[in-house]
Predict the structure.
Amino acid sequence: MRHNKKFNHLSRQKGHRKAMLSNMACSLIEHKRITTTVAKAKALRSFVEPLVTRSKEDTTHSRRVVFSQLGNKYAVTELFRAVGPKVATRDGGYTRIIRTGNRLGDNAEMCLIELVDFNDIYGTEAKKKRSRRSRRGGAAKTAEAAAPAVEETPVAEAPAAEEAPAAEEAPAADEAPAADDAADQGEEPKA
């Protein structure tokens, strides 16, 4: 019977699945985000989050436990130096899964899994302060108050001396083709 065996086997045997999750966890720790299928991302989340929790306290025992799972000393170093201190105040939920659509070849559902605290896009926007609009004409008073604050400054025009050479060159360029056109038609050019 198969009672209480609910985790996804990912169509792999135990050794292969463990090695794959270990390699994916190392890539996630080093690159902070990876693209994979949704099923693998969900399995990876349950694999990597306990390791990130271990990295909050930097002890020899924690490092050895994490190294036994990952098997990559560079990933362990990155986890304890960069990731652990940054997530020290967070209680859990260190990863985020963002679905990106289906893969072209086999139509598998793809996603982006990333470490939450290392994302520059989400959570950095300042929330806009919403104001309520009143029907009593409060907006008209505000618009009138804002209008005098904006002053129009006269635009200084460029001196005519700077424009004169450009004006002199342009007609000379225009006269030469006109003279050629007149010569083609058998007329005398105008002087």
